[in-house]
Amino acid sequence: MNEVIPLRKFLSLLAALLLLCGCAEVPEETVPEYVLTYAENQPEGYPTVLSAERFAELVRERTGGKVVIQVKAGGEYGSESEVLEQMAFGGIDFARVSLAELSDEIPKLNILLLPFLYEDADHMWRILDGEIGEDFLSVFSEAGLVGLSWYDAGARCFYTDVKPIRSPADMAGLTVRVQDSHMVMDMVKLMGATPVTFPYGDVSYAFEMDKIDAAENNWPAYQIQEHYRLAKFFTVDEHSRVPEIQLASQRTWDVLPEQYRDIIAACARESALYQRELWKEQEARSRAEAIEAGCVEIIPRTVQKDAFRALAEPLYERYCADYMDLVAQIQNG
Ligand code: GCU
């Protein structure tokens, strides 16, 4: 027997379908059920910010305007550590942070921060897109957070104004700004320099005030924050690939109806694919612009990468002794 779908039901199904494929406009007058906050410490126009905005837009469309996520860029909600503190009690609902910020609180994350863990970006994505990356998304519950998706942050490299860094010997005596992670601090010590932590937004100030001689980050951060003005020697040593993570506060998550959670989770993953595309373009553009503006690139073949790698080796046992099988699986993945 053919079942006849009543017209009203048909129309609402059609509307839901159109929203799902992004073909329908959300009426202006729709009253949201949830207005949620999203913290970003990068400036407007940065790949992670554009992707957060895409994420928010997808969520708005697919919930028919019932869930509105307001993205605040440029560290408006505070430094990454301040944001994470607030997320623990639901003061901020979503954020994109660098994984390094959570590695002291969730020690298993040190695995993904290990220096020279991957051969290249493709290797990292094979791991994060696979079962291992999926399992890692669940560890954030230890800190009252829900892991939604991985964003790209390229490879981190050292930069300074003192002299070109080609070998660990060139690091001797330098004070290097690092992220707030014990393992990263230890890495710099093993390389013969002195680590010091400053929030990302204060790195230029720290250079200007002579509180640091060097820092480490990827091409986009180096260029967009204009660190090349203060530290022109950029060494392509690519000592680590620290991914970014899109997170929700567990407190917020628990009050959202399941149907919205599913939509949000799917939109986060979709925005991550978009972010990866933007990232590749931005990386190339930032490198070219920094060099154009006077950055001196110390190219990989003139860098004694193996010497850096050898010095960082003790971190594997020191921070990941309980997970050496998993580390080997990642290295061979
Ligand atoms: C990356 C990341 C930032 C982070 C920064 C840092 O650039 O995108 O979110 O704050 O590293 O070095 O602190």
Order of helices and strands: HEHEHEHHHEEEHEHEHEEHHEHHH
Q: What multimeric state do the chains show?
A: single chain
Can you list the ligands bound to this structure? alpha-D-glucopyranuronic acid
How large is the count of helical segments? 14
Q: Strand arrangement, largest sheet?
A: 7-6-8-5-9-11
Q: Which strand-content bin applies to the residues?
A: 15-25%
| Model regions low in confidence, pLDDT < 50 over at least 5 residues | 1-5
Number of strands: 11
Biggest sheet descriptor: 6 strands, mixed
How far the N terminus sits from the C terminus, by CA atoms, comes to 53 Å
Q: Measured on Cα atoms, how large is the radius of gyration?
A: 22 Å
Overall structural class, as computed from helix and strand content, comes to alpha/beta
| Shape, principal axes of CA atoms | globular
Helix content: 40-55%
What is the mean pLDDT? 94
